[in-house]
Amino acid sequence: MDGVETRPVRLVVSDDLQRGRGSVFFRLWFAIPFILWLTLWGIAAFFVAIANWFATLFKGTSPRALHGFLARFVRFAVHTYAFLYLAAEPLPGFGGRPGYPIDIEIDPPVRQNRWKVGFRFVLVVPALILLGAFFGTGGGFSGTSEGETGRLGLLVAAAFLAWFFALARARMPRGLRDLIAYGLSYAAQAWAYMTLLTDRYPCSDPLTAIGPLPVREDPIRLESSDDLRRNRLTVFFRLLLAIPHLIWLVLWGIAAFFAAVGNWFAILFTGIAPAGLHRFLAAYTRYQQHVFAYLYVIANPFPGFTGERGSYPIEIRIAERAPQNRWTVGFRLVLALPALLLGTAYGSLLFAVALLGWFASLFTGTMPLGLRNAGALALRYSAQLYGYLFLLTDAYPYSGPNVAPPPLTADPSIAFPPRSA
Amino acid sequence: MRRLASRLARPSTLTLLAGAALWLWAAYALWHSTASVPQGPDLSPDRFFSSAFLDRSASYERFLTIDGLLAIVVLIGVLAVYARRGDRLMGESAAGRVGTGMLLGMLGFGVVWLAELPFGLAAVWWQRDHGVSHQGYLEWAVESFLGLGGTFLFVAAALAIAMGLAGPLRRWWWLAAVPAFVGLALLFAFLSPYLVPNTSDLHNPQLAEAQALERVEGVKGTRFAVEDVDRFTTAPNAEATGLGPTRTVILWNTLLSNDFSRAEVRAVLGHEIAHIAHDDPLKQVGWLALFLIPAAGLVELFTRRRGGMARPEAVPVALLVLVAFQLLATPMFNLVTRRAEASADWSSLEATHEPAVARAMFRRLSTTSHGSPDPPGWTALLYGSHPTIMQRIEMTYAWERSHRP
């Protein structure tokens, strides 16, 4: 596995989640000088990166001076975005020096493969597409074609929601902070790759992006026994093969909608979901995620049509019904709005994962682990969101990456992730 | 002799014979529900087309015919290999018996699509070369790929029905499946006008003429529409589709813009309205039902070695049997459609009383689509869903002769 400690560009998080309300309220204004400085520095970095390209192409390694300049620039970019997106509290320095609560470590220059250096501007395109899913419109100093389509960036959505939460509670939610840190970790790797600080391709694995993750026993969680192998033929026709499932999903969705309305009334009166409705909606939620996993190349086999428990390598575990707070049930739709916003942004990530995963799987017969886990994170959030909307639980969707506790039964097939790639 | 007699006396043989007799009677009745048309005099194409055009159109059709035949050979070859090895793909499914069968069915057609892609592209190249198609290669490939989605959906639905019934009914699934497929075909025929993209209503003066022809041919409530196809092709065409309240005549806009005269368009309208008047869309479903019975029976027979249609591993074999049956039945089906088309031509003449206009229209149909007016008999047999242009021209003379005072 490509652990965070082995990467040449590593994110180091020492943030304590505490936030000052004033600092949060005026965050955008406070960030303006840093953004201006980042822009100016970015212009210089552009030319330095070109010089670095020529130098690395001829020498095989990046000159120390250029490497140092660009490393500082990438570090400063990470600090600035961490501050802007509320992943860190203090004002960053203008010099890109280490020590910020959301920081990166970059290894000294090493010998790079000249072919990879020569074609770096082509090789970086997939990373830019994924970066576009994180930053959305106008995000990052890379400027991505994805941004031009006006997609809602995951980091922008997370920061937007975090602003309200931090303002109210003077504290950053761990999930949102980790999500932003995850995005910045990927961005730092992508920028470093782009500016030839390293020839290691950016890894999008959320499980290894930011160090230790919280262990959570959420009532809805995702477990994977996917082995990353993909059949090229089914990958090629994946979109078309999913059509019967998509139609069935819509038809079942109509019934699920009315069942959810019935569930809402039932819980409002009795405080707990009727067993039949809970089972029906849980099966639908599971089926929905099976179909998404198949469509977005996050899993390999053609899923069944019933959402049967334990039938698919990307498995959604849904806890048995439990009493729910009637107030949160009554206002569920309103309460779900922030999660819906983040769910939409996660959709951008899912789309980028599917696009890149489709090409990768078609050419190599294997889904990259990082992409698979990024997609699985988005699917897990989607499952929790629908579970919350369908009143399967009153636990709010957890926005960041996390790890599930080991299953009580020692079933080796339900390990996450199963093997390295 | 005694053994033969005892075999014939078995209830299953008797049932089979009775079924065959019933089938033949139904086919006979359906065949005769469409009026036959008198044959015209045997005329030379040189009278109506220049020798340069005849050479060009013969060469144009020859390429497409060879391309089509090669595609058929590849189709059968690919499906034969798939029938032997397709069951290896069962490991790519977590969907249970029916779902896995659906996957194998869809993948079978996916493999066929991939194998036939070069032939399709060759046909596009040829059509572009002759100015019949404007479509780019990538555009065609993408559209064809997306169109495959419809095939996948159809195959998945058909297999869900067949395999779903094969579970409880075992060897007799096809007896229940055929009515289900016919029901689906009726539904599809009913909805088909809504599935045609890029259509708009036909306007005056053609609309008024269409409605007048409707009255003459004894039809009411037909919708008349125009389909925009000039982005892809210059070839003219029209179709009658839908059942009951959805009955629609659709003209390609190439017909309205391709310097066809109003009288010629009127002849086309008369032909399509005749299809509606003759209930041809419904009769087509009837023929489909008749062809489905032996097809489903053969599928049942050939899939027994793989455990019958209830088993997903039987699906690749079923695909091969079905496609082979369809190819073998095509000449017979073409015979049926040619009869219906000839009858519609005749009814159109009865409604318009303009044989000279019809001749001009047929001539223009040939020149604008580069179709050979008098193709070799075997290509007409294999591919000819309509009478040849020369047969249609000859028929106009037959009509004139029959209406001479």
Structure overview:
The complex is a heterodimer of chains A (421) and B (405). Chain A is mainly alpha-helical and 421 residues long. Helices cover 56% and strands 5% of the residues of chain A. Chain A has a two-stranded antiparallel sheet with strand order 1-2. Chain A has a two-stranded antiparallel sheet with strand order 3-4. Chain A is globular and about 70 Å long. Residues 138-149 and 409-421 of chain A have low confidence and may be disordered. The mean pLDDT of chain B is 89. Chain B has helices at 2-8, 11-32, 51-85, 96-129, 137-169, 173-195, 206-216, 253-257, 262-277, 280-302, 315-352, 355-369, 377-383, 389-402, and strands at 199-201, 223-227, 238-241, 248-252. Chain B is built from 14 helices and 4 strands. A 4-stranded mixed sheet of chain B has the order 1-2-4-3. The relative contact order of chain B is 0.13. Chain B is mainly alpha-helical and 405 residues long. In chain B, 70% of the residues lie in helices and 4% in strands. In chain B, helix 4 packs antiparallel against helix 5 (137-169) and helix 11 (315-352) runs parallel beside helix 14 (389-402). Chain B starts with a helix and ends with a helix. Chain B is globular and about 65 Å long. The interface between A and B is medium-sized, with 20 and 25 residues.
Task: Explain the layout of strands and helices.
The complex is a heterodimer of chains A (421) and B (405).
Chain A: E1 9-13, H1 21-25, H2 27-59, H3 64-84, E2 102-106, H4 114-118, H5 120-123, H6 125-135, H7 145-148, H8 154-169, H9 174-194, E3 220-224, H10 232-236, H11 238-241, H12 243-270, H13 275-295, E4 314-318, H14 326-330, H15 332-335, H16 337-364, H17 369-389
Antiparallel strand pairs in A: 1-2, 3-4
Helix pairs in contact in A: 2-3, 3-9, 6-9, 6-16, 8-9, 8-16, 12-13, 13-17, 16-17
Chain B: H1 2-8, H2 11-32, H3 51-85, H4 96-129, H5 137-169, H6 173-195, E1 199-201, H7 206-216, E2 223-227, E3 238-241, E4 248-252, H8 253-257, H9 262-277, H10 280-302, H11 315-352, H12 355-369, H13 377-383, H14 389-402
Parallel strand pairs in B: 2-4
Antiparallel strand pairs in B: 1-2, 3-4
